[in-house]
Amino acid sequence: MAEEDFLSQEEIDMLLQSLGKEEEEEKPSVEYKPFDINELEKISPTRLIKLEQVVNRWIAAATTELRGIIFNLDSISLADIKTEKISDFVLKIPLPAAIAVLNVEALGGRMYMVLDTRLIYTIISIIFGGPAQPYKVEGKNFTKFELKIIRNLIDIFTRHLNTAWVELVGEGEIEFVGFEDNPRRLITVSRNEIVIVITLNVEIETFKGEVYLAIPMKTIEPIKDLLRTADSESGSFKDVILDSLMGAQVLLEAILPPLNLSVGEVLELKEGDFVPLDRRAGEAVVIKVSGVPMFKGILGESNGKKAVKITSLIEYSFKGTE
Fold first, then answer.
1. E strand or H helix at 301, and its extent?
2. Which of 144, 211, 215, 240 could form a disulfide with 196 if both were Cys (CB 3.0 to 4.6 A apart)?
3. Where do the structural domains in the chain lie, given as residue ranges?
4. What is the DSSP string of 27-80?
5. DSSP character for 4?
6. Least confident residue range of 46-50, 102-106, 169-173
7. In terms of pTM, does the model score above 0.70?
């Protein structure tokens, strides 16, 4: 073999240095993104039909009682039921926070009820004769009086939620176990823990506020199949309304006939005077139910107490029904 067929040492070094570079240059660059298993948690669960029935009955009963406190309450309605991470839920809780911790002993779990701070201050404003709008609450802690009103609201919501839960689900009772003002303390296991968040809209005149009920998935895991079934009769909306109406408190009034007196005659009245009425004892008086004339009756006594005996119903004729 001729001498020129051999490579020089310099050429051999250059060849060794270039080995592998061609493959490295031709190798395509691959961009990748780590897979986050938590993304799967955004998938909506199967509709929990019985849970919706519980919520509807809860709303109907709570609305009836709250109207006795908040005279201009327009409505409470179900706005949404969805799942989300508890860390995301905590971020939307307004401060100062009003969080009721509820226990379901039979299931070994808890629920969290959150009252919108603006709603609380709107109700307080109404109680004191103010408008249906909240006042500024930034950087302000609840006073003892405000906490008492909050606790009363929580008692009403919790009591009716428990009644609806026991009647339709029957797995344990829901009871109030504590009040929390720091939303971050709700994260007891993991920031990625999944909760079912039920949002209620509360409308008072032009104001709209929210009440949230957060139920950790692990709390209802033992009864998830039960919550997917529906009660054909007891869970119907018609029964919810009827149950609420049957338990509503109404005011019954026996209205005496009016008497016209002059200002001078009124000023002359004194203790012990008798005011004669233009109606005999045996004649009927009108009996009103929550301000609406419903019956006619006769005044009398029963077991030593003043009483009125219902003698007839007051019939109404409505246009288009005759």
1. strand 292-302
2. 215
3. 40-246, 250-258+278-322
4. SPP-------GGGGGGSPPPP-HHHHHHHHHHHHHHHHHHTTT-TTEEEEEEEE
5. G
6. 46-50
7. no
